[in-house]
């Protein structure tokens, strides 16, 4: 299974936060295990996400373009998503290493 397929499954399971602000709020509340950041996100967005992720010790994957993330979720112009399920986050990290 590909990363994009897994993202679609995680979305249907309601284990995904979509958008920078919502994702950072969930991160502050200790509800995220992983963040996916679009490679084409703005420098400001990347800095904000990486700084917060480092503070709360959550891993960030920056491998997909915004188009690929958006397509996987059936939405438009998505730059940042969070994964709030340990199983899905582990699966995504494992798929990344292949």
CATH topology: 60s Ribosomal Protein L30, Chain: A
Tally of individual domains: 1
Number of helices: 5
Structural class: alpha+beta
Helix and strand element order: HEHEHEHEH
The radius of gyration is 12 Å
In spatial order, strands of the major sheet run 1-4-2-3
Spell out the CATH superfamily: Ribosomal protein L30/S12
Distance between the termini: 11 Å
Shape, per Cα inertia axes: globular
> What is the class in the CATH system?
Alpha Beta
User: β content, as a range?
Assistant: 5-15%
Total DSSP E strands: 4
Unreliable stretches: none
Q: Helix proportion of residues, in percent?
A: 40-55%
The largest sheet, given as strand count, sense and whether it forms a barrel, is: 4 strands, mixed
Known CATH architecture = 2-Layer Sandwich
Average residue-wise pLDDT: 94
Question: How would you sum up this structure, described in words?
Answer:
With 98 residues, the chain is an alpha+beta fold. Helices cover 52% and strands 14% of the residues. It has 5 helices and 4 strands, in the order H-E-H-E-H-E-H-E-H. It has helices spanning 3-12, 20-28, 43-55, 66-73, 86-96; strands at residues 16-18, 34-37, 59-61, 80-83. It has a 4-stranded mixed β-sheet with strand order 1-4-2-3, sandwiched between helices. Strand 2 (34-37), helix 3 and strand 3 (59-61) form a beta-alpha-beta unit. The longest helix has 13 residues, at 43-55. It is globular and about 30 Å long. The termini are close together.
